[in-house]
Design goal:
By secondary structure, the protein is an alpha/beta fold. The protein has a domain at 12-68 and 189-312. It contains twelve helices and 19 strands. It has a five-stranded antiparallel sheet. Strands 5-4-3-6-11 form a five-stranded mixed sheet. Strands 7-18-16 form a three-stranded mixed sheet. Helix 5 crosses helix 7. It is globular, with a radius of gyration of 21 Å.
Length: 404
């Protein structure tokens, strides 16, 4: 089966009002977003044993980005999503202290005023708070952060910029220099796709199933994808995704959450960016495995199979006990198995991931040696097993800063 690719190029001058409104975080006027509703592009991809495709929107970044042109060094934007505070700010301060000022920015979206007060005097720049709702809409604050990051130092950009979503309970797992070299040195966006039984599916009107790929919220997007996300969210793209896929409409039980069972569970932030940027899988035949090639998707391709484990690039460790032993390449199990007993995290449950309240120096060494750039969830001021100051020890062991 021949694969067809349709690429739409849009001149920058056509949509200046739309672009300006979105990057300010302001919804465009009805006149500004006409093109978003009138132009569509679809991509179909060759597959092994089966032919499926991704339904996809236009690459809006081509409308206003001078691809390949950089007028400053590549920059890593750390985008914090916080409720009442960012935990372990002292460790983050030590992390940013080793970072060249022109190589990073740190922005934070605070849900509550106490969070704004807690980050005063830190390297974290608050953005205006927007309404958000657990599970049903954490995408609004995510794209609020993206919009303000894109508008930071207006007029400067680098195609190698990366935008990293960070929770308020996350810690860096490597020194800044290593995280910077890793992210700025590779093209594409990092999506950590859950095992395929977590993907959402509904019958497709054109035959087979339509599927939405579930990913960790803690994604890393390239600059063009950051722009596209802001544009499409402001235009209303896929705001109804949870309703369309009947998400969380049925009682959840671990044993009956299986591949292509039309029992769909999850939150909008686990589906929206993947669906908006790449589309939903169409014409899925559950009797045959398939392979889908995705542009600018780290560790491409995406495999569609009932027994598929973790895929893509998982930059942040999160303790989901249900999938700790997922088949295939599994960096989560590898890291978990390396920990000593005092450093094993709490397991969490089917709805909430596990967490750390204690870790040893040895566990910190395993963090430093792991495949992950970031680790979550940590309570504020955890206990250092064996005694001592957790922040000082973590800074010394993981970042190599402080007395040996």
């Amino acid at each position: 089966m021949v694969a067809f690719r349709f690429v739409v190029h849009v001149l920058a001058i056509v949509f200046p009002a739309f672009r300006a409104a979105v990057l300010r975080g302001v919804p465009p006027s009805p006149h500004d977003d006409l093109a978003a509703h009138s132009m569509n592009a679809s991509l179909s991809f060759s597959a092994t044993n089966s032919t499926i495709g991704f339904r996809r929107q236009v690459d809006w970044s081509s409308a206003f980005s001078n691809k390949g042109v950089a007028n400053r060094p590549a920059r890593i934007f750390f985008l914090f999503l916080a409720v009442d505070k960012v935990s372990n700010l002292k460790i983050w301060a030590n992390f940013f202290a080793e970072a060249p000022a022109d190589q990073y920015r740190a922005l934070v979206h605070c849900k509550l005023p106490s969070c704004l007060a807690s980050v005063q005097g830190s390297k974290l720049i608050p953005v205006p708070t927007v309404a958000s709702y657990y599970c049903t809409d954490l995408v609004s604050p995510m794209n609020q952060l993206l919009g303000h990051a894109l508008n930071n130092d207006a007029g400067t950009e680098n195609p190698a910029d990366k935008f990293v979503f960070v929770s308020d309970s996350t810690l860096p797992g490597k020194p800044f220099s290593e995280i910077y070299a890793t992210l700025a040195g590779r093209q594409g966006s990092d999506f950590c796709a859950f095992p395929s039984q977590e993907w959402a599916d509904i019958p497709s009107i054109s035959g087979g199933l339509e599927m939405a790929v579930k990913v960790h919220q803690w994604i890393v997007v390239e600059r063009a994808h950051a722009v596209n996300s802001c544009m499409m969210w402001a235009s209303g793209k896929d705001h109804d995704l949870m309703h369309r896929f009947k998400m969380n409409w049925q009682p959840f039980a671990w044993p009956n959450n299986t591949f292509a069972d039309q029992r769909n569970f999850g939150c909008l932030d686990e589906f929206w960016h993947m669906a908006a940027l790449y589309g939903t899988l169409s014409h899925v035949d559950t009797a045959r495995d398939a392979v889908v090639s995705l542009q600018m998707f780290t560790n491409n391709p995406l495999r569609v199979s009932p027994n598929q484990g973790w895929q893509g690039s998982c930059d942040t460790f999160v303790m989901w006990a249900k999938y700790l032993h997922a088949p295939g390449n599994n960096p989560f199990l590898k890291f978990h198995a390396s920990l000593d007993a005092p450093s094993i995290p709490h397991g969490g449950n089917d709805q909430r991931p596990g967490w750390w309240d204690t870790m040893s120096s040895y566990g910190m060494k395993m963090v430093r040696n792991s495949d992950f750039l970031f680790i979550r969830k940590f309570i504020d001021n955890p206990i250092l097993s064996g005694g001592g100051d957790f922040a000082a020890e973590y800074t010394k062991v993981v970042f190599g800063i402080g007395k040996p």
